[in-house]
Task: structure prediction
Amino acid sequence: MTTQKLISEIKRKQSFLCIGLDVDLNKIPKHLLDEEDPIFAFNKAIIDATHHLTVAYKPNTAFYEAYGIKGWKALEKTITYINTNYPEVFTIADAKRGDIGNTSTMYAKAFFEDLGFDAVTVAPYMGKDSVEPFLKFSEKHTILLALTSNEGAYDFQTKIIDGKEVYKTVLETSKSYQNSEQLMYVVGATKAEYLTEIRAIIPHSFLLVPGVGAQGGSLNDVCKYGMTEQVGLLVNSSRGIIYAANDETFASKAATKASNLQAQMQSILKDASILN
Amino acid sequence: MTTQKLISEIKRKQSFLCIGLDVDLNKIPKHLLDEEDPIFAFNKAIIDATHHLTVAYKPNTAFYEAYGIKGWKALEKTITYINTNYPEVFTIADAKRGDIGNTSTMYAKAFFEDLGFDAVTVAPYMGKDSVEPFLKFSEKHTILLALTSNEGAYDFQTKIIDGKEVYKTVLETSKSYQNSEQLMYVVGATKAEYLTEIRAIIPHSFLLVPGVGAQGGSLNDVCKYGMTEQVGLLVNSSRGIIYAANDETFASKAATKASNLQAQMQSILKDASILN
Result:
């Protein structure tokens, strides 16, 4: 999917919500455990109930890998289900990969071609030749970890290199990568106060923002400091939506939570004069 | 596997070789493509021919994920085959994972419990709470990326934080993590000149050293600057061994290559008075 198409979907749906499909068999409604594929059954119900409220889905691959082949099958079925039934939705494999050249190419093929995701999250530690193989795929997006929402972000990401934080060095360096226009960045909502300085470096790039809700980040702060004229934000919520209830009403309760966020987003988009 | 057991296996086999099982269907002998599971058939033959010469196997998970469910099955069969037939061999999932707390726990379970690997490689960018979940598993090892063998390592890893390179900050910071005695570190053989300074920070930890052979690193230099009294090194070779030939002699040719490296290692261990 092109960035332009993503922006037009945001305007059409009046939403820049991304729903994280982080499925934990210990947290889903008990009645689904009788299904042949409980993870897929859960995702399918959530997707059918929320696709009109969200512009993106983001399965975190760890949750699928944890269940081995069964998990991998559920991931394949989930992405195929979205691409077949709701092709207008942007899909992100939250995989946080990164390896040397030919290995990164293998990962890129796996997520972009075999599975058919629009985007994949990538860790920057190994530098240029670990990121550029992902950028070679047209109409696909590489979402680089910049400033993450967890406490450990302060271990290295905010440390100073040549008078500048590591995450800013990552942002600036990545701008010189080939096809860097296909880069997006992860910036945690728990660190919204950093967004003004981030926007000074990457004024137009899309940011994937986790940490609103369960982790305590504020949607208003994120938008105040991070929104661009073309929106430039995908705000993710996982647990706050998908585990809104764990009985037979789980999908409709998830839709209610997603709808609340969509309504807040619609109002923010109107206030920013992005919508009429 | 405990570190002590790994050291005693190194002494018994007179080898600190790790063989990288990075299986690419375009590179394996054509006759294997008729097998039901060509990747596993290739690995099984390589393992049967080399297990007495190597102390570790390291499948890079990217190569398996690139083939979807088939690849994941081949990875499961490979690790199960090693654990069943050659339980004395140390196994490393070269996955370069790293995510926030609960997600890292999911990854740790997937690799340590479900698949049964002894170790997994982890990226440090997200800091303490992304690494410590892996360290909670006893007799399991977390191999943190420190200084990698690729060109992109100079993008961030060698940049200076407070008068010290980023990779040294990673080494020092990680020493304060809970159960840090279960940490090992990736240091590329292409950067052997850095090993003296690395050993000043982590004098005893095991290093996983890729980049000897195809990438141009020197085994002698790595040992000169990186070896400890308890060896402290696992030197990896992937392509140089597993793709030694691509006809029906591939496994025996791989064994010859592995045997050459083992002989060099034996001689180095004797010179260092680690073996009698």
